[in-house]
Structures are given as C-alpha cells and as structure tokens.
Amino acid sequence: MKKTFILLAIVFTIIIPLFANNNEIPLIFINSESKPTEIDRKPMHLPIEAFYDSDNNIVEVISDGSIEAEIFLYDANRNIIGYSSHLDTTFGLPIGYRGILILEINGENWYATAEIPV
What we know:
The chain is mainly beta. The chain has one helix at residues 2-15; strands spanning 22-25, 28-31, 48-53, 58-63, 70-74, 80-84, 89-92, 100-106, 110-117.
C-alpha cells in the first residue's frame, strides 16, 4: 500500500506541472563588454525570469528589482509589439496572434534575448 501511495505521488508531481499554462521562457544572457580575444567560460545569469501565459495571452517579465533594463517585444518581422523602460512588466499580446515573438532585454553592459512560440 505504501508503494502504491508513493508511486501515485510521483506520478502526480510529474503530470500536474505539464498542464500548467504559465510557461517559463528560456532567456539567453550575453555580456556586451566581452572582448573578442577573451573566452567567457561561465554563462552569464541575472535574476530575471520571463513567462508566457497562454490562457491570458500575456508575456510577463519578473526581476528582483535591483536591475535596470529596457524590454522590447517584437514580432517575427521585428515590428515592436511592446516596450517597457523597466523590468517587472506585463505585455498583452494582440488577439489571435500566432507565430514567433522575440523578447529582448537591454541592460547597461548586457542583453538577453528569447524566442517565444505563440
């Protein structure tokens, strides 16, 4: 009986997150001050997260508040869909939009980018 309970608990912990509608967007951080001769062995990571909510059709960017950056949201043709001069913002997407969105976050000496399939 104990094994059955543990097996069910494991199955539920794996299956429930699969149905979540808030999908995290993987961001790629790039240091813009790197010199071409230097090798960056450690990937850059900043406390910024981005999520796409398919139910509400929004893109949300969250940070810990210690970073200043501008956020641009483009469509596949590089037309601006949204802009914010600070982090911790939410973008509403056009109704019925389908395709690829490009999220770009520009900091002082770095930038982050991601592609969002909608």
